[in-house]
Automatic annotation (TrEMBL):
Gene3D superfamilies: Phosphorylase Kinase, domain 1. The keyword Transferase applies. SUPFAM superfamilies: Protein kinase-like (PK-like). InterPro entries: Kinase-like_dom_sf, LRR_Rcpt-Like_S/T_Kinase, Prot_kinase_dom. It comes from Cinnamomum micranthum f. kanehirae. The keyword Ligase does not apply. Residues 31-87 form the Protein kinase domain. The lineage of its organism: Eukaryota, Viridiplantae, Streptophyta, Embryophyta, Tracheophyta. It holds the Pfam family Pkinase. This is Putative leucine-rich repeat receptor-like serine/threonine-protein kinase. GO terms for molecular function: ATP binding; protein kinase activity. Keywords: Kinase, Receptor, Transferase.
Length: 87
């Protein structure tokens, strides 16, 4: 994924994983309310647990979101580029 870095005026080439909807449903227990850890401008965020024990956050795009797909992809890219153990 290529993401424009507005701070340094360059493009970042990010390595992001991809998952099937079946995998995402399994890791979040079908987006169970007990796994909801927050909500942002795009919709809710859920805690998930991968089969290898890795804890992940899953952002679910809400149909009520006023923000577009481009902004959603950019936010995911920015979060992916951060070097923080909780992201």
């Amino acid at each position: 994924m290529k993401l424009f870095d507005g701070l340094n005026l360059r493009y970042l080439d990010l390595q992001t994983g991809s998952f099937t909807l079946k995998q995402i449903n399994a890791t979040t227990n079908n987006f169970d309310a007990a796994n909801k850890i927050g909500e942002g401008g795009f919709g809710p965020v859920y805690k998930g647990l991968l089969s290898d024990g890795t804890i992940i956050a899953v952002k679910q795009l809400s149909s009520k979101s006023k923000q577009g797909n481009r902004e959603f992809v950019n936010e995911i890219g920015i979060i992916s580029a951060l070097q923080h153990p909780n992201l």
